[in-house]
Amino acid sequence: MKAIVLVGGFGTRLRPLTLTTPKQMLPVVGVPMIERVVAKLAANGVTDAILSLGYRPDAFLEAYPDDRCAGVRLHYAVEPEPLDTAGAVRFAATEAGVDSRFIVLNGDVLTDLDVAALWALHAERGAEATIALTPVDDPSRYGVVPIAADGRVEAFIEKPPPGEAPTNWINAGTYVLEPSVLDRIPAGRKVSIERETFPRLVEDGSLFALQSSAYWVDAGTPATYLQVQLDYVDGLRGQAEPAVHPSAVVEDGATVEHAVVMAGATVAAGATVRDSVLLPGATVGAGAEVDGSIVGEGSVVGAGASLRDLTVTGLGAEVPAGATLVGARVPDADA
User: Fold this and answer.
1) pLDDT class for 146, splitting at 50, 70, 90?
2) Exposed/middle/buried for residue 210 (C-beta within 10 Å: 0-12, 13-18, 19+)
3) Which of 126, 128, 130 is nearest to 115 (CA)?
4) Residues near 124 by Cβ (< 8 Å), separated by ≥ 6?
5) Which residues on neighbouring strands pair with residue 171, listed in sequence order?
6) How many CA atoms lie less than 13 Å away from 106 in the CB half-sphere?
7) Is 46 helix (H, G, I), strand (E, B) or coil?
8) Three-state helix/strand/coil letters over 297-313
């Protein structure tokens, strides 16, 4: 069973964390996001994963020099230019010689979806493409997918205006495709699978969907990247994982509450870290407070400083002693 994993985006929503690192290589409780995604694929029977790369592909090649990740064989397809979702799928499938039924998924989605059930439904319906659906409170940010009783997709509505969506079941970013879908994707240009390919499959009645309420989070924003970390340590993805890495230092008098402290990070005496994530090598100075925020790899939060309301610091950033940051980005990637 082969899967194409889309990991070529620039990760703009997660800046400044992604100014130097592709988002799928960011750690989730110490394990690269891509490794978490591929491990789930392995558990569902996937043996080969083709990584559709674009932004900083060397980060993936260097991390997995033996071309294996979580027991799965890796293949790489580096886009010469951004080709959007369908264009990336076609390019990766062509590069890897995919000529049989395969899976496609977004590399920034962490989910407990039963991929084997999606594969089985696809086979039972004789579908050309089958997509996973997940329910959300606000479907206006996503592709909304109403379906018939047999699972046949009746429409594919990309990002409907708030309050106008016919359903709250959205495209969950995992698909089973027949090779014939590749022939529907024009070569050499950007093609959106959501806006072009799927609507044409709907017209032909060959697109089906599986609704699933399994755990699903698009980890591509600071809020959701923070959420998935806390979900792991809270045991929402199985057995709870340790929140504080053995090599981290939490000094006497420091307080760490419902927070992830990764390898080599330090929380000095009198500091408080709550509902937050400290990436490897981060330092929180004496008496500082980090609340609901993300401190990037090697970042230093000065003594007595305060980070609140989803403040995010990038690689090696420094927050001056005594500073107060609320919802800030350091450095400001848009400045």
Assistant:
1) very high
2) buried
3) 130
4) none
5) 133
6) 21
7) coil
8) CCCEECCCCEEECCCEE
User: What confidence score (pLDDT) does residue 323 get?
Assistant: 97
What is the amino acid identity at position 325? L
Residue 334 has a pLDDT of 61
Instruction: Quote the tokens at residue 176.
Output: 């089973």
Alpha-helical (H) ranges within the chain are: 33-43, 58-63, 84-96, 115-125, 180-183, 198-203, 222-233
Is the overall model pTM greater than 0.85, yes or no? yes
| DSSP per-residue codes, 156-207 | -EESPPTT--S-SEEEEEEEEE-THHHHTS-TTS---IIIIIHHHHHHTT-E
Interval 259-280: pLDDT, tens:
999 999 999 999 999 999 999 9
Nearest Cα neighbor of 129 from 90, 102, 166, 156 is 102
Q: Which domains does the chain have, with CATH numbers?
A: 2-221 (3.90.550.10), 242-330 (2.160.10.10)
